[in-house]
Design a protein that fits this description.
single chain, 108 residues, alpha/beta, Urease, subunit C, domain 1, four-stranded mixed beta sheet, two-stranded parallel ribbon, 2 helices, 20% helix, 38% strand
């Protein structure tokens, strides 16, 4: 008796989007096969036009104290970006340094 296993690989092409690279955004397209990003593929089962939207990694830090003042921003912010963490909830901090902290974060 022979058992045949057939794998069906579905490839989707996502077009017209700005993709986060870890350093900035690149405009273009990406291929996904069975839930994983892959190099360009000749087989495309579906195409999704993202209509100029931005695609970001799903990494967030929902609670920390590492970006609550200018000193900490200067010492930790770039590490977050380098690791793909683009969201952070700062639930504390001094009102006296909030403006300067926001300006430093906006400059990254």
């Amino acid at each position: 008796m022979r058992l045949w296993i057939i794998a069906v690989i579905s490839t989707t092409l996502y077009t017209n989007a700005y993709w986060w690279t870890g350093e900035g955004f690149d405009y273009g397209e990406r291929f996904v096969a069975d839930g994983m990003f892959v190099a360009a593929s000749e087989q495309v089962d579906a195409t999704v036009d993202l209509k100029g939207q931005y695609v970001l990694p799903p990494l967030a830090d929902a609670h920390n104290h590492n970006l609550q003042n200018p000193y900490l921003v200067e010492n930790f912010a770039q590490r977050y970006v380098d690791q793909g963490v683009l969201y952070g909830a700062m639930l504390c901090g001094s009102p006296s340094s909030a403006k300067q902290t926001r300006e430093l974060l906006a400059a990254i």
